[in-house]
Amino acid sequence: MSLPTELLQLLESLFEPRIVVDTAYRILAANAAYRREFGEDPSVIGRTCYEVSHHFDRPCDQCGESCPRQQAWKSGRRSRVIHRHHTPRGEEFVEVEILPLQDDRGQTTLFVETMRFLGGKGMPSPTLGMVGNASSFLRMLELLERAGPANTPVLLLGESGTGKELAAQALHRLSPRRDRPFVPVDCSGLPETLFESELFGHEKGAFTGASRRKTGLVEVADGGTLFLDEIGDLPLTQQVKLLRLLETGTYRRVGGVETLRSDFRLVAATHRDLQRMVEEGTFRRDLYYRISAFPVRLPPLRERREDLPLLVAHLLERLAPQRSVRLSAAAMSRLKEHDFPGNVRELRNLLERALLLADGELIEPWHLTGFADSPSGGRAHTADDEIVPLAELERRYLHRALERLGGDKKALAARLGISERTLYRKLR
Hints:
A hairpin with a 5-residue loop joins β4 (90-102) and β5. The chain is flat and about 75 Å long. A 5-stranded antiparallel β-sheet has the order 2-1-5-4-3, sandwiched between helices. It has 18 helices and 16 strands. By secondary structure, it is of the alpha/beta class. The N and C termini lie far apart (57 Å).
């Protein structure tokens, strides 16, 4: 299909990477910005967008992804999602926006696809500190990307260890305030008597021990982002003072009379059910509505098990950059059987211990010790759970037993009444 000259000229004049795709997903044109970011490979013309961007052999929506082209075709309006795209720098998070174009008969025949790197040009996922490819993770990332440039308060909801502070930092980096301070406040770790002093600061002589003026965290956050972690743990008496700050943008240092002002973007986080706390009277309703203008749920690790290999590789690279460590297939299978009540934080701790226990460059199941309790207990499935070959059931049992003995094969062989050679053979 030949494209109108006016469309090609407009495409070339735009600074963001753009391609034109037909109804069969074939790329018909790519502008200079696309060629600059994704390489000068002319062979993209005529290839499908899903093969070029994702290395898939069929459309995104048939591979578990959300396809913006499909959404735009059905609705007749522009659509956008967050995807991980292959680039010359590796895989990166990219916001994909699709604009459907109609012919003289009102039929959609072409789509203009715009790609924007999350957080700015060339920002790969490790820069955000967050990695993943599961659909629930990408939906969460899309919400962060939409909220980032705004000044709207964001409430991050998720279990302990899901990365709420990383999400808050991502919001800060995606915002116009990225060059100003990011100030985290752990509400659960602040004694009630020190809350005002830490948040608002105090004047010299305000109380016993106040030998000099102290700058509060609200003042430090002026122009930047104030992150209130575990806000659900804040006592009611302090919730009133926080609400006044959020409503007026003003505060006074403890012992001071001067009214000060701070301009900050609020991001709050909690693992608690704030709506239930509101109904129970343990969290102020007016404060809840003030902080929850844009709620974002962070998925627990058990809802994104397909991200385990990616997370493991990312964490091992950060924990042991000088070593080329990897997990054996059996060790990865062991992780995939676990529910991870401690989420990514628990995974990091498991890998950190395994790195100390593993002498070589391969982490085996018996190096993965100290699993937290979970609904499944992190146990291997038994015959009551599923039908498996006896040899597989025996192998799983031996790995659990070896784990309990800290990887001591000699001790396990003695307890089982078999030779070490037989144990090695069974473990393999």
